[in-house]
Task: structure prediction
Amino acid sequence: MCSIPVQSDYVKLLKEAKLIVWDEAPTQHQHYAKAIDRILHDIMQHLDSPFGGKVVVFRGDFRQCLPMVFRTSWAAIIFAALSHLIL
Result:
């Protein structure tokens, strides 16, 4: 969960952005992508399109990197991968 004030400069910047590039995305847990999706839905008020209608590029080597999930099984790490995300 993330709370961003509606009148903040950060929200204005996100509204003006045409493209969001997320570098090293494969090392992040899929919950981060879901949180960003929800935030952009709330900001842009486009509930029918992924990421509120913004173009998001996930960058990184999806073949070699897995998310960092500590003290868990291999199955849980694979399940946490961004490539298993279904929006």
Remarks:
- The radius of gyration is 14 Å.
